[in-house]
From TrEMBL:
InterPro entries: GAF-like_dom_sf, HTH_MetabolicPath_Reg, Tscrpt_reg_IclR_C, Tscrpt_reg_IclR_N, WH-like_DNA-bd_sf, WH_DNA-bd_sf. GO terms for biological process: negative regulation of DNA-templated transcription. It holds the Pfam family IclR_C. SMART domains: HTH_ICLR. This is IclR family transcriptional regulator. Residues 73-256 form the IclR-ED domain. The lineage of its organism: Bacteria, Bacillati, Actinomycetota, Actinomycetes, Micrococcales. Keywords: DNA-binding, Transcription, Transcription regulation.
Amino acid sequence: MSTVVSTVRHQAATSASEKTLLVLEAALAEPRFTDVVDATGLAKATVHRIVATLLDRQFLAVADDGGYLPGPKILSLAGTALQRIDISAIARPFADALVEESGCTVHLGAVSGDEIVYLVRADSDRPYLMPSRVGLAVPLHSTGIGKNVLADFTDDQLDRFVARAGLPGRTPHTLTTPGALRAELESVRRLGYALDREENVPGIGCVAAPVRDHTGHVAYGISISTLLLEHTFDQIEAMAPMAVAAAQKLSTALGFPS
């Protein structure tokens, strides 16, 4: 008899936890109490009770317009969680899976000022290695990952970047004029991925997709790189769906809504 009672209590506790999480998620996304009720599908009395508890425990706060905001407690927890994020560890399984799928070298890069810094390099079983390494900083404008970052810039941000960093040529194929770069970034926005057509290192091409953090900001990118002796540019671009899918999965893992 005691086992049955314990099971029932456990199920009720799980149900209560799920309801609390539903209400918290809805309250942070919806502007009014009635919207929270509609979003959760729970009874008004249940939502009111849970919201009152979340307010009391400082997981929620009330805005001037009566809507809900993240409370001090949830902001503190979020800050702690963000400090402990190891993007390299999170990204590694996605990079390894992309190597398996593409048979090419995969890089994960992060924005650092006006450059991309490689955080992960995952190699295939090809009998050669790319001339890259973890920690290497490369320009935004001449790399596939960097172009995805620049495509997320506003016009003013892009103007400031060009004035500040310039567009130095890395190879004869690097885009070195603002007009050429802007046209390229329009294509990146339309396609959802970027190509490096031998623009950063002679003899190497890549396709890269944007990785977004929990705010939706393009803070990272993942790329498939190969020697042009192995693949043509058309073959490299044909791997774009692989890069995009991996980037979307990694973005979701970093908290960006899928």
